[in-house]
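Internal tracking record. Fields below are filled automatically when a chain is submitted to the structure queue. Please do not edit lines marked as system-generated. If the sequence contains nonstandard residues, flag them in the REMARKS field before resubmitting.
Queue: standard
Priority: normal
Entity type: single polypeptide chain
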Amino acid sequence: MTTADPVRSFRWQSVSRVIVAMSGTQRSGPLLRASIVAARALDVELHGVYVRDTAIGDLAGLPNAAILGFSGGGTRPLSRADLDRAWAREEETVQATLSATAAGAVRRWSFESASGQLGRVLADRLSGSPLVAIEAGETWAVEQAWALIGRLSAAAGALLVVPPGAVDSTDGGGNGPVLALYDVAETGAAGTGTAKTGAGERMADGAEIIALADRIAIAGNRPLTILALSTPAHARHIADRIHKDPHVHQHRVLSWPDWRATDLAEPIAHVAPSIVVASLASRVFAEPAAALRLLRRATAPLLLIPPV
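SYSTEM-GENERATED OUTPUT FOLLOWS
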């Protein structure tokens, strides 16, 4: 296995830019930091999108819609003008945050404001197979974020989701290693480098996961940890192959035979990664309920490669 084999073509290599969905409700750290590291690793533009949610705008003018007056007490009707002023202030704050964080950290960055439903706005911007970064637990509930990942995965080059545990952290686990989840079906001593989900979709193979994780680790100046979802014996075989690859920088290989998502949060927390790189077609995400449990318990952003 060679992570930098010029003959190989990985889906994430076609990523044209990193699109980060921004809102005023976000805690600015983990989402922007992880997005910046991804943009730097892939040498692409970082593009922030702030969306004025039309569903909220439709509430203005309804009989029961009201705004609290802090100075004089009481309430008054909520108008569209009130929302427009609030959106303008929030947009200015979000753009300033992006500017201050991205300046000097990435080669190129840009910002736009759009009106609509956030999921639809992102879906309309999938040309060029971008990496799309979203936050779960603030902008959306975890269930809504996971559903959106499913809708975007067909056209996105990769997806970055920041779970509630990372948002709640002061540094988003930013000082930890990059963790690659290497979910490869055992098929004898040599292994195939691929696995199939119950739905029959071929997952991005181990070389692709490690190649991307290695890129992220180098860009973030972090060590690389590979968590093999296999027996210790198979993990040792994987380690032997990786050690022979001169392109993979400082790393270690761990084993976790019980790959069930309900248990996977434990070894991930033990590693304390800055970011987790995995395939959406991994057995870890085969059952939505188990995937949601992992997302709720994860303490680092998840960078997910869609099925091939």
